Amino acid sequence: MKPVVEVKKLQSEKIIKAYIPMTETAYYILLSLSCPRHGYGIIKFVQELTHGRILLGSGTVYGTLTKMQKYGIIMVFADEQKKTIYQITPLGIQLIKAEIARVKKLYQDTVAQEGGFDY
Prior knowledge:
Elements: H1 4-19, H2 24-32, E1 37-38, H3 39-49, H4 58-70, E2 74-80, E3 83-88, H5 90-113
Antiparallel strand pairs: 1-3, 2-3
Helix pairs in contact: 3-4
């Protein structure tokens, strides 16, 4: 029988593999949870951060939040006045850091090659 810590590590690795590469929606939702926020706060944060390029619908946000909560990527921080406030978990932090590193590498590769398309 495997120790509980080893099983949790394997589960975490499986979840990270399943999420990376992340969708823009999942990425921006996790990015918005650098501090606890409720659903509408997430929508407004993403809209402001992307200067309106990404407009998340409430159905998309709450569907993604439910899935992330199920996998332990986020958790409910507080439930106040009909507003559920979400917080990123240690697994979620591990996931967003891995995705940020992946996106940075994409950017570096792109910058290194973009001059090759000047015809």
